[in-house]
Input
Amino acid sequence: MIENILAGHAVNAVNQLFNTQIEPSLLAVQRTIPAFRNQGDFSLVVFPLLKISRKSPEETASLIGNKILSLMPEAEGFGVVKGYLNIRIKPEYWMQFLITHQNEFSYGKSEAATGNPVVVEYSSPNTNKPLHLGHIRNNLLGYSVSQILKASGKNVVKVNLVNDRGIHICKSMLAWKLYGNGETPPSSGKKGDKLVGDFYVMFDRKYKEELSALMEKGLTEEQAAAASGLMTQAREMLLKWEARDEETLKLWNTMNGWVYEGFDLTYKRLGVNFDKIYYESQTYLLGKKIVEEGLQSGVLFRKEDGSVWINLIDEGLDEKLLLRSDGTSVYMTQDLGTAQLRADDYNPDKLIYVVGNEQNYHFDVLKLIMKKMGRAWADSIFHLSYGMVELPEGKMKSREGTVVDADDLMDEMIATARAMTEELGKIEDFNSSEAEALYNMVGLGALKYFILKVDPKKNMTFNPRESIDFNGNTGPFIQYTHARIRSIMRKAGDNIIFSGADNLHPSESDLLILLYQFPQMVELAAKELSPSIIANYLFEVAREYNQFYHELTILKEENPGSRSLRLAISQMTSIVIKNGMGMLVPEDVVLGSKKYKPEKNIFLSILRGGGGGGAPPTRCALTISS
RNA sequence: GGCUCCGUAGUUCAACGGAUAGAACGGAAGUUUCCUAAACUUUAAAUACAGGUUCGAUUCCUGUCGGGGCUACCA
Output
């Protein structure tokens, strides 16, 4: 890439001028800021070289500039502002780039994957709670990071961890048994996950009623809890489950099945999917074995009451419980087993966990334990920790009933898209299924883009109204730009072949250089595990394209060289938007597939939602505060 | 209290230690006989505070103030 070529020549120039070999890292090559674009395309900061040159910044820059001009065939001129050397690259270089890549439909995406896989865990919700806004961020991040890693040439395995066992699962089962009257998703008309979630809530309500009744009789809260018949029955059910009681297992399978079916629908709409599902019910025993191993090797210790702990005080942390005094496992126990299983299954380069930042401590501890247990792969554990999602009205709180359900939110986004479209009267010639498809694409595209454009590390505010605006840094703005380009390409006909033009307009070269940088952006996003880098880049591409579109005529351009140049740039822009969007979400969900023949209205060109296959899914239980 | 993350225009987001801190929304003012105006152009507006390191700090370090999270034999 040209930045590296330029840096290489700069190193040589310094060597020849000042007889000093410098590290390329000393030289920062960056895109020239717009204010000085009249001088050059890329800039070199020469301040770090002043000690070597022993000359003024301006003089040093001029000397290097002249030397680079003689060394570098791609350079055609330079300008100097203070310590900044601005190098102009020949237009032919950018045209050649366009000639080479104009019809490369996989531009920016690596075709072949190499190396051991990267395992990305995401989603992992609690099967008692339907997915909410917090999960949406988790799912979108996990899916997108996986796509970005793939695009950068990694083998990626997307995995989900299902929290399908434990006392909380028994609570919803018990409530269904006692009060459910045989209700099923079809009989109630509820989604499976919602139905089970309702019984979980019902257990909690009945339990509290029982407690207050007992406390009215004079028991303390603790006594009441111990005397609770409901809780006793739940515990009994857990014991039965662990003892593989047939009837309990049957109910367990049935109700889990309902939840998975419900989650499946939500996953499908979100457009996420998984390569492998891990179930806690299948990993917690392995976790217990690892605890056993740790006890024998002396890494772990047992307290008098029988509970097992690890001492991490020397590491600046605390003592951490790994097994309860009654021998049952805790959250961490199963994670030890799950991590081991993944290491055995894939021998991965990296084990990425997409989990909210409230669990930072948990993953620090997980990594440390594995290290102390002598697992060489412990260092490959990486917690992709993301911030909370808030609403303009404030935080979601389950107690206050302000949790935004994922399905409801998606419905609302689609409804807003409908209302806005109808208000503008844009699609009067659409049939109903086309219109529905459009609302889906715009509504869901808005939601997904808005959430992914923010740096994962940061807390964010999701503003539904703002997200769906066609003006501004939004998904619909990018979708609209893509639709505009497709419209032009359709009118231009199929074979656009650019072979050269007389000159480059600044709008053309700015856009072209931006397109040129796409692969670098993918690399950066993969390195940082940050979809926001791709999202913000795509916005810039779309903005730049709209400017270009407004400023220059394309189809009606009379100069054939310029016309084909602009068409080829348009073509590449649409490829970059399509491939880039595909690294955020399944691209046909937000940009449409080619199956439609959008003759009557170009909005159809962004139509048609596909959606990936879904699969069943704990870690998200606490992304909302309670 | 301890640990940790974060404080950038009115608001929501950007900025490998580099130029005059970018956008978007909202505010103000414009652009349609022309490939989609769900677009484009112009404009006012910000680095919480105090030190330090550096040729250069929004970025790194220290402290203060303000906010989030964690600190369960919950997950």
Q: What stands out?
A: The first helix of chain A runs from residue 2 to 18.
